[in-house]
Amino acid sequence: MPNIYLQRLVNEQLPYEIRRHAPVWQMQDAANLALDCLLVKSLLLHDQRTNAYYLILCGPEEKLKFGKLANLLATSRSQLKFASSEELQRIMQTVPGKVSPLILATASPVKVLISNHLFDQPKLGMHAGTNTETVILSYQSLIAHLNNQKITFYQQSPV
Questions:
Q1: CB 115 within 8 Å of CB 60
Q2: Do the beta carbons of residue 58 and residue 117 sit within 8 Å?
């Protein structure tokens, strides 16, 4: 079955590589994979005050600082929660372990926040609808893809 998310990258004429591997459900599962890229951690958060959803993209070792993030989003720390499995299914049509910016629907209401630590990385790795493949692309290609898909994003460090 063709991967619709990879087809988007092809249609957008964005270069990428694919690396196949055993299923990766959590970042630590990928620790021993030789992928020659920085793996991107994708975390979906829900602001319960505004009912907004944010996809946080950061490096595998970065820890989310909820206070800093709440300040950035002009909300309360107590209102920011990780999205539940049900919310992941409803908002992104996916399950934990398969969250990725590449699977966001065109013009998705989910806003993407990108850590400053990703800006200067030559190669970023992320899933595209399956956790048995890593898509490797440049930071510039990721930004071009988000723009092409009309997805709102912010290049700020939420961690």
A1: no
A2: yes
Side-chain-side CA neighbours of 99 within 13 Å: the count stands at 28
Nearest of 58, 129, 66, 60 to residue 92 by alpha carbon: 129
- Measure the CA–CA gap between 54 and 152, rounded to whole angstroms: 10
Side chain identity at residue 132, one-letter code: T
Report yes or no: 118 and 77 within 8 Å, Cβ to Cβ: no
Q: Look up the CATH architecture of domain 4-154.
A: Alpha-Beta Complex (3.90)
Residue 159 has pLDDT above 70, yes or no: no
pLDDT computed for residue 2 by the predictor: 62
What are the residue ranges spanned by the domains of the chain? 4-154
State pTM to two decimals. 0.92
33 in the Ramachandran plot: left (φ > 0), alpha (ψ -120 to 50) or beta? beta
